[in-house]
Amino acid sequence: MKVQAQAYTFLLTTVLLLISGLRVHAVHYDHSVTTECLVEPKRAQYGGGIMVNPGFDQSLRGWTVNGKGVIEERISKEGNRFIVARNRTHPLDSFSQRIQLEKAKLYSFSAWVQLSEGTEIVSVVVRTNRSELVRGGHVIAQHGCWTLLKGGIVANFSSSAEILFESQNTEVELWVDSISLQPFTKTEWRSHQDYNIERVRKRNVRLQILHTNETALEGTTVLINQTRPGFPFGCSINHHILTSKDYQNWFASRFKYTTFTNEMKWYSTEIKQGEENYTIADAMLEFTKQHNIRVRGHNIFWDNPTQQPIWVKSLSSEELRKAAEKRLNSVVSRYKGELIAWDVVNEDLHFSFFEDKLGQNASAEYYSKAYKLDQKPIMFMNEFNAIEYSGDQAVIPEKYKKKLEEILSYPGSEGISVGIGLQGHFVSGQPNLAYMRCVLDSLATTNLPIWLTEVSVDKGPNQEDHLEDILREAYAHPAVEGIITFSGPAIAGFKDMQLVDENFHNTPVGDVVDKLLNEWKSESVQAKADSTGFVDVSLFHGDYDVTIIHPLTKSSTKLNLSVKKHAPQDIVQVHV
C-alpha cells in the first residue's frame, strides 16, 4: 500500500494566480522533497501526470522492457505493487514507457526507487526519437527502503520519447514505483515564479499615523523610498575597476554585493612562495567599503590541481601542509570581519588536490579552521554543474549533502555557519529550468543558505533570454538567498557576459540585469492615511526611508524602516 502524501503536497491541485493583471489557471508546482528512505513509497506526484499506470495498479500496462533482461510486477507484504528489472547486462537495461513531448514545455519528474542490494546511483533518462539520451535526475538508492528521485527536462522539440532508468551496477535489480511526469507550459512555469516572488520576497507593511494623544490622523501623506535591497543580487568585479572611473561609477550605481573574480585567490596573492602581496585585493576592498558594497570572499583554496600557484604543485605533503596553514591564517585573518562569505575549498566535489596530498579530511579541517579565525562570514561550498548540467553525477544533491555532513561533523566544527554555493556557469542554449528547480528543492531540505555564486551564460542565440530565465528561476525559489553574476564591462575583459560595451552602453544582457534590478525593488510610494490612520503597502524586503507629512501643518517626520523576510512585521505606529 502506498503512503498518502503530506497535506501540503498539492496533487492535481489548481490555483488561480494573478499575473500581470491576468488570471492564469495553472497546475501548482510541488516543491516538496522527501529525504527519508521509506518502508513504503508515497503516491505519485500529480497523480502521475502523463504517465500511464504510474503506480502499477494495472499490472505492467503501458510498460515494456528496455534492452535485455526481464521486467515483472511484484507485490510487497503490505500489498504495494511495483515494477522490477532483473537479469540486467547493460546500465540502461530496465523498463520504459513511450511518451509524447511537446516543444517548449517543462516536465517535472519523480519516482520512488529501491535496489535489491547495496547502494547505487539511479538515474532517469529520456531517450528521444533521435536516440539522444538526456539524463533528467539522479538519486542514491539503496536496499530495504524507497528513495525519492526527483528531476526534470525541457523539451526543445515535439516528438515521441521514452522514459528509462539507469544504474551502472548491472548486478542489482531495479525496483521503481509511483512514477510521475508532469508537463507545464512556459506561462504556468512563470506563474509559479511570480507566485513565489510575491510570497517570499515581499511583505505587507501596515503603518498607523497617530496624534500624540493616540487618535488617528486621517489624510497624512506617507512617502516611502527604498534605499537598499533586501535580496543580494550582485555582480563580480576585477582589478580593472581600480583604474577606470567609468567602471567604478557604473558598478556603484547598480550593485551592493560583489565577488572578486581572481584577486583574493592564492595564485594571485602569493605568486612566489613567501612573497605575499595583497595590494590589489586591499584596494578593491577599500572601493567596496567606500560605496557600502558587501563582498563574498573567493576563495581560500581551490581543490583543482591545475589552479594552484605554480610553486605549490611541486611541494611535498608536509611542505604543502605548512604552506596551506600559512595561507589560510594569512588571508582569513587579513580580512576578518570584512566579508559576508568565504568559498573555503572551491570545487571539492569535482576535485581532491588537498585530500590526495593531506588526507580525506583536508577540506573539513580548513572549514573548521577558517571559522575559528573569523566567525562572521558564512563558509560556503562552491561547485559547478549542480544546476546547469543534469548529466554530472559528481554534484548531485545527495553528494552535496554528504560533503556538508562531513564538514559539520568534523571535530571542532560545532556551530560553524555553512552555505551552499552553486556557480551556475551555463552553456549556450535552453537551460533546463525543470532540473534546476528540482535540485534547489532537494538542497533546500538542508535549511542552509543557498547562493548562485558565479552566474554566466555562454554567448549564443537568445543569450539574454536564457539569462533572464535563470535569474528569475533562482530569485523565485524560496531557498535561494543571493545571486552573483560573473559579468561586467568590456574594458574589464568580460567576453561571454558583457553587461556594457567599451562606451558603457548596455548590451542586451545588460538590459536584462538592469530590468530585473528595477523590477525586484519597490517603486516610490505616496499614500494617504485612511480614517483610522492606516496605510497598507506591499514592499520588497529591504531598507526604506519613510517621510510622514502632517495634513495641516505640513511638518514632516522621518524614520527608517527595515522590511525583512523573517522578522515579525507588526503595525508600525508613528506619532506626529
UniProtKB/TrEMBL annotation:
- What keywords does the record list, in alphabetical order? Carbohydrate metabolism, Hydrolase, Polysaccharide degradation, Repeat, Signal
Q: Which residues form the GH10 domain?
A: 225-516
Keyword Signal assigned to the entry: answer is yes
The record, for Pfam families, names:
CBM_4_9, Glyco_hydro_10
Source species, domain of life = Eukaryota
| Classification via InterPro entries | CenC_carb-bd, Galactose-bd-like_sf, GH, GH10, GH10_dom
* GO process terms (BP): polysaccharide catabolic process
Please provide, alphabetically and separated by semicolons, the GO molecular function terms listed in this UniProt record. Answer: endo-1,4-beta-xylanase activity
Q: Which residues form the signal peptide?
A: 1-26
Enumerate the SMART domains for this protein: Glyco_10
**Cited Gene3D superfamilies:** Galactose-binding domain-like, Glycosidases
Family the entry assigns: Belongs to the glycosyl hydrolase 10 (cellulase F) family.
Protein name stated in the entry: GH10 domain-containing protein
Starting at the broadest rank, the lineage of the source organism is: Eukaryota, Viridiplantae, Streptophyta, Embryophyta, Tracheophyta
